[in-house]
Amino acid sequence: MADLAGFRAYHTARGNSAPTNADDAVAEAALVRATDYITDEYIWRFQKQHKDPLPDAVDEAIYEAALSELSVEDDAVVLIDGGFWGKTYTPAEAKVLVQVDTIRWQYTGGENGYQFPVSTKIEGRLRPYILPDVPVVIVA
User: Fold this and answer.
1) How far apart are the first and last CA of the chain?
2) How far is it, in rounded angstroms, from Cα 98 to Cα 124?
């Protein structure tokens, strides 16, 4: 299971020293938040054969998620207030600029719903273990 030593080694190998520069308590808290996020958003969707034991990709996904919980402020590594993965975006925030002259915005998601952050690295690591979205086909 993901641990502090693994978190630091994983990111050091990728040239990121933030987990190593963080105090143990800060890095551990980031790991707890990340583990909660991965468990709540991904593990429940795993195919049965991948739930016990969990694949190594889960630890890698946790390490990626934990890094997103850290920020550098005044040369110190700290936790992001409120947590990165707990952030929600309202429709007013989920938009892109599509025209500059007489500024115009376009919503990037459903205008009536909320959106959450997503990591392509985490999605890529865990995609092979998740149940596929199988469309329902009715044959008459």
Assistant:
1) 48
2) 28
Q: Is the distance from CB of 64 to CB of 58 less than 8 angstroms? A: no
Query: Could you tell me what percentage of the chain is helix, strand and coil, using 3-state DSSP and rounding each to the nearest 5?
Result: 45, 15, 40
Q: What percent of the chain has pLDDT over 90?
A: 49
Residues 6+ positions from 7 with CB-CB distance below 8 Å = 19, 27, 30, 31, 62, 63, 66
* DSSP class per residue in 43-91: GGGB-GGGSSSPPHHHHHHHHHHHHHTEEEETTEEEEPTT-STT--B-T
Tens digit of each residue's pLDDT (9 = 90 or more) over 14-56: 999 999 999 999 999 999 999 999 999 899 889 888 888 999 9
pLDDT at res. 81: 85
pTM above threshold 0.85: no
Which tokens go with 89?
């975006």
Task: Give the percent of the chain with pLDDT over 70.
Answer: 83
Burial zone of 125 (CB within 10 Å; 0-12 exposed, 13-18 middle, 19+ buried): buried
CA atoms within 13 A on the CB side of 5: 1
